[in-house]
Specification:
This protein has 259 residues and is α/β, with parallel strands linked by helices. The chain has 11 helices and 10 strands. The strands form 3 sheets. Strands 5-4-3-6-7-8 form a 6-stranded parallel sheet, with helices on both faces. Strands 1-2 form a two-stranded antiparallel ribbon. A two-stranded parallel ribbon has the order 9-10. Strand 3, helix 4 and strand 4 form a beta-alpha-beta unit.
Length: 259
């Protein structure tokens, strides 16, 4: 059979492999392209209404609940808030969509790539800044009273973007960290100790999936622009290459379909 085989970072092949066999008592053989056994299905599967596209439903498995639960809800976005979202990849763009459910007065998106800032603008960001432009002074000028943003959502996962969020937030504001960090980040308490700033982290548990699905059905979440490239399962290698070169291809989310 054909399969995509992972050989380590940036090393993968698509080709013929032996058919899988059960080796240990705990093993199970599943066919991902056709069917799969899902443990605990009563708490993790949801029936899709006929008017929800499969492509839109894919986003409920990852970026929408992550952005909403760990970013928007933990950041306590509320009416009239100024919100900065640092990182306009798929998670950051989903945070823009779900933050707007709470009618903030302004959403500011920050990213390195102009193509992703353009996508942020299309999805509802009121202002977009490159990383070089996103100085605390520039962001404060975009806030309602010049003191900084009420909520800063970190959606990248590197020290520089987390530390930037702590500099952009106003006294009494909230920093919601969504990004997955692989290196230490500095928490500058010498600057933050007297500013009453709340910093939250978390891991999505998808409790919001039924509600987000209802919003999709009601037409309150327009996610069509998030999927930019589509491939068959036999084109998986090309799909990975396109997503890896997102700065050149403009890829946001890549969807794979059974052909």
């Amino acid at each position: 059979m054909k399969a995509l085989t992972y050989h380590g970072p940036c090393r993968r092949t698509w080709g013929e492999v032996p058919d899988p066999v059960v080796r240990d008592p705990e093993d199970a053989v599943v066919r991902v392209g056709e069917s799969v056994r899902t443990p605990f299905a009563d708490t993790s599967l949801y029936k899709l209404p006929e008017d929800v596209r499969n492509e839109d439903a894919l986003l409920l498995a990852d970026i929408l609940p992550t952005a909403y639960e760990v970013g928007v809800r933990k950041g306590r976005v509320g009416p009239g808030d100024t919100v900065a979202i640092v990182g306009a990849g798929p998670i950051g763009l989903a945070a823009i969509l779900t933050a707007r459910l709470y009618t903030p007065s302004r959403v500011i998106a920050v990213d390195l790539a102009q193509s992703r800032l353009d996508a942020a603008k299309r999805l509802g960001a009121d202002a977009v800044l490159t990383a070089a432009e996103a100085t605390p002074e520039a962001v404060r000028a975009l806030s309602r009273d010049g003191l900084g943003v009420d909520v800063a959502i970190e959606a990248v996962g590197v020290p520089e973007t987390f530390e930037l969020c702590t500099r952009l937030v106003r006294p009494g504001g909230r920093v919601a960290n969504v990004g997955v960090h692989g290196k230490p980040a500095v928490l500058h308490l010498e600057d933050l100790w007297n500013r009453d700033v709340t910093v939250t982290t978390g891991l999505v548990d998808t409790h919001s999936t039924p509600m987000l699905l209802d919003l999709l059905v009601a037409g309150r979440l327009d996610v069509a622009a998030l999927v930019t490239h589509r491939f068959g399962l036999d084109e998986m290698q090309e799909a990975y290459d396109v997503f890896a070169a997102a700065a050149d291809t403009g890829a946001l989310k890549v969807a794979l379909f059974r052909t």
